């Protein structure tokens, strides 16, 4: 279906690498401004595997997803689990490689560069807002 259904929009072409900006409305901060959307099989399965790192402001939104692993990864990441209303259910900072993490009440998870959660002051219960990045 594509991530636009989660934003309330219409279906987009599945081959396009869709990106969103994620703002923390509660804290009036930006969590990330260049987040790739992984909303289909291959992209969801691969996640961040094979990458050497994430720059600040980058991330991956895995939809749907309630658990992730960092097995085989080369760098730590921050995790933000959210429900269907885009309310933060759980936050994990600087999750190192070879770890497991989950949140059974989450609908999806955002994987971010380590330090992003602290910089945006994001906490459980915060409301997030997603907006398309250029051309989406």
Automatic annotation (TrEMBL):
Signal peptide: none
Alphabetized Gene3D superfamilies for the sequence: Protein of unknown function DUF192 (2.60.120.1140)
Pfam families: DUF192
Highest taxon, organism lineage: Bacteria
Name of the protein this chain belongs to: DUF192 domain-containing protein
Organism listed in the record: Edaphobacter acidisoli
